[in-house]
Amino acid sequence: MPESTPRTTLVTTKSAAREHRAAMDGTVAAVLTMGSLHAGHLALVERARELADHVILTDFVNPLQFGPGEDYEAYPRDLEADLALVDGLVDLVFAPGVEEMYPVMPPTISVSAGRAGTVLEGAARPGHFDGVVTVVAKSLRLTDPHLSVFGRKDAQQLAIIQRLVADLDLPVRIEPVEIQREETGLARSSRNAYLSADGKEQALALSRTIAAALAAAPSLSGIQDALEAARERAEIDWDYALALDPATLEPAAPDHRGEVLVVLAGRVEGTRSLDAAVAVATAP
User: Fold this and answer.
1) E strand or H helix at 196, and its extent?
2) Catalytic residues
3) How close are the terminal C-alpha atoms of the chain, in Å?
4) CA distance 54 to 199
5) Of 65, 122, 210, 247, whose CB has the highest number of CB atoms within 10 Å?
6) Are 249 and 120 in contact (CB under 8 A)?
7) How far apart are CA 216 and CA 222, in angstroms?
8) 53-89 pLDDT, tens digit each
9) Where are any strands of DSSP class E within 88-157?
10) What mean pLDDT do residues 241-246 have?
11) With left for phi above 0 and alpha for psi between -120 and 50, is residue 127 left, alpha or beta?
């Protein structure tokens, strides 16, 4: 890895992004974001810097992954603050407008996430993951990285993007990065800004549930019981708290052994919050 700190350049067009990418020698990592950057994003940038010679960060609020009545218009946007946060940490920030990314809206051709995109978060947000994989496919094509880093908090998204890359034979390695948490244990998220102090306290039900599920391992039934107990307590408005087979995103069968994907989603003060972890089950 080079010792020098890169100069950060902002580009807003696809042609400029391609031009700057073509001038990069060595390995390149991409960090794909919707802006409103926080410490969790910086952890992704840090990991990308560890793994590659150059880092490209995308900063684009993707309208395709927002459904009717969701918070697309209200989603926090502050490009100036984002640039200040990553200045000197990434080589290139690609921050296109909607018309630049999608000259025709909705796009004539898009990508489907398949059945994996219709369960869990996809059931609650129809079409969401189709929008995610469409923008990820476009962004990876435009930035042409050797690897791209994604956080484990959005566990279903990570699994779907890994399948996107494998199924479409995209020449990029997906590098998972552990969840970044606030001092209280709350998983970092741009949407935490919507929560009051009381809301943030209530949202700790998610991280407590993760801790209980991990403590119940390696018993699969113990993990499942911990999740059922959390749902029954109803400390938040749960959408789901499940133990999944990570290969299929289906609930883990009683005879499942190996990695178990623990996924949580619920609403606090009207804001959707997620958390996730990987446990290992070696016993019933």
Assistant:
1) none
2) 41
3) 45
4) 39
5) 210
6) yes
7) 5
8) 999 999 999 999 999 888 899 898 999 999 999 999 9
9) 92-94, 147-151
10) 95
11) left
